[in-house]
Amino acid sequence: MEVEVVNMKTKTILFPLFAFLIPVFLVFFPSMCFSQEQSLEKIEALSRNEKMSNAEAVLKDFRDGKVIAHVIVNLRKPFAFSRSQNIKDMSIRRVLEKTIIKVQVKVIDALDPGQVGITNMFKYIFSFSAAVTFRGVQALIDNPDVLSIEKDEILHANLAQGIPLMNASTARSSYNGSGLSIAICDTGIDYTHAGLGGGGFPNSKVIRGYDCGDNDNDPIDENGHGTACAGIAAGDLGAVGDYIGGAAHNARLYAVKISYGSGGSARTSDMIEGWEWCITHQNDDASNPIMIISTSFGGGRRYSPCDSYSTSMTAAAANAVSAGITICCSSGNDGYCDSMGWPACISHVISVGAVYDANFTASTIGWCVSSGSCATKYETLGCSTGWYSPEVPNSDSVIVYSNTASFLSLLAPSNWATTTKMGGGYWTTAYGFGGTSAACPYAAGAAACLQSAAKSITGSYLTPDQVKSKLIDNGDLVTDGKVTIPKPRVNLGAAVNSLSPPPTTSTTSTTSTTTTSTSTTSTTTTLPPLPPCPECSGSPVVLTNINFSSDRACECSDATAITIGGGVTIKSGATVTFKTQ
């Protein structure tokens, strides 16, 4: 039997006691060791099953002797739904929901609820999450309608200077998020804060929300992380010290709590539930639809776009984008030079790294980084990672902890962010709130301002792909000091200036007589010439497969006889005169 040991020194010290306890353990529990051996053999067998997505992660709890593991179960789709669906179309969305429920229920009804406890039934993806025993996992593997099983992972929570750095001061004075909402999918929002509505729930700023982590209707923040993110994205306009309101200060907020309890951790399934909740409730307030999601949570390390890592999470992101919602995710604070956390690595989202918003000290700051960072680093007991990297902060330079990779989307301001604090007041102390957790809502607020501008200037919102490309293409390139990878830092002013009003439609007025036709045209754009009249002179005239286009005066002359056959079309507005000899 293989035993995982944290460190060899501990094992050496405890070995005599461990050897003494084994005989006692076997006397009082004579069958348990044999049963465990059987389970380990079965674990090894299951780890080789093709339905297990990242089997090591899924089965780790059982290897560690735990009775329950949390998983996401992906189901086989009916053939008609094998392609992605446009769920912005409500008729398609309704059919999709009904079909998903039918597929889910068929699988769940065949399972023993004592072995598989359902924790989330998703609305727009063919999946559900569950707390399962080992026997439950075996039953899922044996079900032909189960496509794959993945780990329901636990993810962790990762302005006066920042707004000017993004060249957002002027743009935000005209286009400030009015007429739309940003959903903060995080630890909740302290909606009693004066800068976030300052009242009960809902209020004038935080207009709706839900607690997906604890499954109740009150998304109050008991951690503080979500409240800080909300203040950066869309806190009310004000002037409290360095706090001048959120980037999109006139946008409304949805508080979508994905963490459980008062901690800063969330399960993948609750993040999926949160994103799906945003789709379902996108237009609850038709005057302020949800157009942006900000999620400053993540974990792990991915070296390339990771759409295949969690098919359920990727599908949830794709669905939100299909509904017209732009998702911003923090890249993570490990100091990686070739990778980032998940779900920021999903191709459908905007991944956001961090830059300093100002030269706020001439002293060196030691930032905690991962042992896997390429930055110059030193060992320390002061960081949970065991490593720190020192640097002097310079405005608009990439912060050493910010994860960078070739597939990172954007950079946005971070340390240190002056923003709303749970319980009232503001983060004003040096090195208070920051990290890519702060950069993400900065980018989300910028995206909201851009959408506000698009609606005003062009008459319609941009698609999420257009939002992403506008922010990337118009950003100011900043090269990370720890690795030579240049990435665009948000330049909201340039992104807004790239928007163009729609072309003015030309108007044409025409007067006609029996012998002449004159046109007076007022145009602002060059229109293609109208097609010529079909050839129909001669005698006899036989008309077949001819199209007389609109706004044309055509004449068929010198005919002794006219025969109109099949395929003759005279468009509305066309004038056709037939003259006979």
Structural class: alpha/beta
> Low-confidence runs (pLDDT<50, min 5 residues)?
1-35, 506-531
- Tell me how many strands there are: 28
Helix % is: 25-40%
Report on the biggest sheet.
7 strands, parallel
How much is the average pLDDT?
Answer: 83
Strand arrangement in the largest pleated sheet:
7-8-6-10-12-14-18
The number of helical segments is 13
- Tertiary shape: globular
Radius of gyration: 31 Å
How far apart lie the N and C ends?
107 Å
Note the beta-strand portion: 15-25%
Furnish the topology, listing elements before pairings:
Layout: H1 8-28, H2 32-47, H3 55-63, E1 69-75, H4 90-109, E2 116-121, E3 127-132, H5 134-142, E4 146-151, E5 154-157, H6 162-165, H7 169-174, E6 181-186, E7 206-211, H8 225-234, E8 252-257, E9 265-267, H9 268-280, E10 290-295, E11 297-302, H10 311-322, E12 326-330, E13 340-342, E14 350-355, E15 365-368, E16 378-379, E17 387-391, E18 410-413, H11 436-458, H12 464-473, E19 476-479, E20 486-489, H13 492-497, E21 507-512, E22 517-522, E23 541-543, E24 547-548, E25 553-559, E26 562-564, E27 569-570, E28 575-580
Parallel strand pairs: 6-8, 6-10, 7-8, 10-12, 12-14, 14-18, 23-26, 24-27, 25-28
Antiparallel strand pairs: 1-3, 1-4, 2-3, 5-9, 5-11, 11-13, 15-17, 16-17, 19-20, 21-22
Helix pairs in contact: 2-3, 8-11, 9-10
Please describe what this structure looks like.
The chain has 13 helices and 28 strands. With 581 residues, it is α/β, with parallel strands linked by helices. A hairpin with a 7-residue loop joins strand 16 (378-379) and strand 17 (387-391). It is globular.
